[in-house]
Specification:
68% helix
Length: 88
């Protein structure tokens, strides 16, 4: 896998803080930044990928799965159009 370059600009104080934190962890600044931002990025993605429902929402969702409504005219037409386009 080929590594790519990411460049950022930082104030001198920020760079010093990053360097100090990296030194405390006995690592290079680049490794410290990469590890830190990847951890945060993965956390953000997990938060957005997860759906949190209230008890009421969960009950409504489960009820819709267990007791689906009958297809209405628009759904039947959409299904017919889809099957005609896909040849199924």
């Amino acid at each position: 896998m080929r590594q790519e370059r990411i460049e950022i600009r930082a104030f001198a104080e920020e760079k010093e803080t990053l360097a100090k934190a990296a030194k405390l962890l006995h690592t290079k600044v680049t490794s410290f930044i990469r590890d830190t931002i990847m951890t945060r990025a993965e956390e953000i993605i997990r938060q957005h990928d997860r759906m949190i429902l209230t008890d009421r929402d969960r009950d409504l969702f489960m009820n819709a799965l267990e007791n689906p409504p009958k297809p209405n005219k628009n759904l039947r037409k959409a299904m017919k159009d889809h099957f005609q386009k896909t040849g199924r």
